[in-house]
Structure formats: structure tokens, C-alpha cells
Design a protein that fits this description.
This protein is an alpha+beta fold. Helices cover about 55% and strands about 20% of the residues.
């Protein structure tokens, strides 16, 4: 009779160990998925902000023309100030980068040097813009 109780107890210990291991594996995979979802969220947000900037137009003010003027050697500060003013619409720290195709000029503005970057948007003039978004 004594050995039957020991065998039952041994079986219960094995079941508890299996339950703990399954719980640890599921916790690992659940937390890994949340990290990917947050990165995907920030990636969408950075891409949306970059697209919104590139499509901005009001009256005589057109973002693409501002980039073109900057890359031809004038009004870069106006462009970067305009972009920085729009950082207020994003909750996270943001930086903006511009690389001109026809000149050596490249500029940036913002407090997020590394983070999740938007896709590079290449304008008709060949100039490139990109937005980096840092997590809070």
C-alpha cells in the first residue's frame, strides 16, 4: 500500500512540472508577440507621419516644393522648422531626415536619432525623406 501512494505522488509531481513548463512556454510566446505588435504599431505610425508630411499642401505652400527648394540650396531652415512644428502632432519623440539627390546636402531635425524608421519616401525629384520614431 505504501508504494501505491508514492507512485501517485510521483505522478502528481510530474503533472505539476508539465503544467509549469507549458505555462512558461506560453508566457514566452505571448510576450514575444506583444513586442512585435508594438514595433508594427510604431512602424505604421512613422510611415503615416512621413506620408502626411509628403502630401502636405495648403495654398501656395507645398511640402514637395519646399524639399525641392531646400535641395537646390535655399530655404532649408524653413523646411526643417515646418517639419519640427508638426512634431507636436505625434506623441513620441520624432526625427526627420532629408537626403538630396542632386546635391550633397542632407539634414535632420528632431530628438530621436535611432528608433523605428519609416520607409524612405523618394520624391519625384529623387530626394529622399525618412521619419524616425522613438518609443516613449
Amino acid at each position: 500500500m505504501k508504494t501505491k501512494g508514492q507512485i501517485d505522488m510521483f505522478g502528481l509531481v510530474i503533472i505539476v512540472i508539465l503544467i509549469v513548463m507549458i505555462g512558461l512556454f506560453s508566457l514566452f510566446f505571448i510576450s514575444r508577440g506583444q513586442i512585435d505588435e508594438r514595433e508594427e504599431y510604431y512602424s505604421y505610425k512613422a510611415n503615416n507621419f512621413a506620408n502626411a508630411l509628403s502630401k502636405y499642401s495648403r495654398g501656395n505652400l507645398n511640402f514637395k516644393e519646399m524639399v525641392l527648394e531646400c535641395c537646390t540650396g535655399s530655404r532649408c531652415e524653413d523646411l526643417l522648422d515646418f517639419v519640427e512644428d508638426n512634431f507636436a502632432y505625434v506623441d513620441e519623440p520624432v526625427s526627420f531626415e532629408i537626403e538630396c539627390a542632386n546635391s550633397d546636402y542632407s539634414g535632420s531635425r528632431g530628438s530621436c536619432s535611432s528608433g523605428i524608421a519609416s520607409e524612405s519616401i523618394i520624391l519625384q525629384s529623387g530626394d529622399l525623406i525618412r521619419v524616425n520614431l522613438c518609443r516613449k
